[in-house]
Write a structure and sequence with these properties.
Elements (H helix, E strand, L loop, with lengths): L2 H20 L16 H5 L7 H19 L4 H22 L16 H24 L5 H37 L1
Helix pairs in contact: 3-4, 4-5, 5-6
Amino acid sequence: MNSKLITRNIGRFLLLMALQVLVFNNIYLGGYINPCLYILFIAMLPTNTGRIPMMLIAFCTGMLIDIAANMPGFHAAACTLVAFLRGIWLDKIILRDNEEVIETPSIYNVAYQQFAIYLFLILFIFHLAYYLLLTFSFSEMPVVLLSSLLSTVITWILAILYQTLFFRKRLKADSMKN
């Protein structure tokens, strides 16, 4: 991994964590929606990151959010599950049809539909695991599914907006350098 990629990932991590802790942790729309944009950091980690390092990074990321939100490990558990499944979905959805090497999955590096499906699955599994752990009751399953779906949709929209706003500028700057 080159130093430019490491610097970008650290910057992305700091920005998404700050947004999550300062803004999105304080948003509960209708009592059902809580956007978790920081999951985008895990979804966009380099494709050559191994499974164990990925799970450790995800666990630590979730634990930092749990500490900031004063939660007992719900984010850490859900993030670790997402990191475990990420490699499988990355291979099945994004990397299977691409002949070129994809360093970081984003809407500009792969087909929009592939990235949209990949991101939606990651966000839905995260929110489903998070809300199941939060309620810890299958009798509340309709509420868990509703909260998971609504939070996923809102977070997915925010993630696409984030990529559109921040990546387009960087891609233009990178193309001007070449």
